[in-house]
Amino acid sequence: MHTSKLPINQHLDLIEKNKQTTIASQAQKNIKFTDVDKNTSLINNLNRGRVAVFIDGSNLLYAALQLGIEIDYAKLLYRLVAGARLFRPFFYTGVDPKNEKQQSFLLWMRHHGYRVITKDLVEFPDGSKKADLDVEIAVDMMTLAGLYNTAILVSGDGDLAYAANAVSYQGARLEIVSLRSMTSDSLINIADCYLDLDEIKQDIQKTTRSV
Q1: Tens digit of pLDDT for each residue in 81-98?
Q2: Is 184 exposed, middle or buried (0-12, 13-18, 19+ CB in 10 A)?
Q3: Fewer CB atoms inside 10 A, N or C side of the chain?
């Protein structure tokens, strides 16, 4: 049917409807997290559905050290989810079973809703310790892909790009959160949104209580 044959009121309604659809589509396609800070309501208006958060603990720790802050994980989750429906936050980290302070921290994380996935640290000849949980993160992202609509990956590790891209191909929205100087371009290039931790450090850092 040609719009020219419609009554004038229906014709105007159709034009307005098409205009609003175009605006919404363009916003969904072009919005970046860097835009959200200018207008926080924009992110809330996106149809993010159920949000799953996957945090690479060691990567985030190094990013926090670079920023000179200590992460408040309650604030971090609040900032990332931004009013959307939370599916579940996952936290992946290497552990030293003898480190009581770390064990207390992980217990706090579990009690505050985080699903904590750990692997014992391996000590190398040079004295450094490391635990690689890239496989665990990748498997969880892909296995659970049908249960969430948006994946927020807090990591700059390019080794996760393949799994993150696979999740995106399954129809999930992909948001990457990391420190730009520590982030692989392969992750940024496949993300629907990218958020630099440096832009939100004031929102997610622990604050010292005045005595």
Answers
A1: 999 999 999 999 999 988
A2: middle
A3: C
Give the integer Cα–Cα distance in Å for 5 and 42.
37
Structure pTM?
0.77
Residue 101 CA to residue 71 CA, distance in Å, equals 15
Strands (E) in the chain, as ranges, are: 50-56, 85-95, 115-120, 122-123, 129-130, 150-154, 173-178, 193-196
Q: What is the pLDDT of residues 54-73, one digit of tens each?
A: 999 999 999 999 999 999 99
Q: Please state the φ and ψ torsions of residue 128, each to the nearest 5 degrees.
A: -75, 155
Buried b / exposed e along 108-123 (16+ C-beta atoms within 10 A): ebeeeebebbbeebee
CA dihedral 196, 198, 200, 205 (to 10 degrees): 130
User: Using 50, 70 and 90 to split pLDDT, how confident is the model at 125?
Assistant: confident
Q: Are 73 and 89 in contact (CB under 8 A)?
A: no
Report the distance separating Cα 17 and Cα 82, nearest Å. Answer: 28
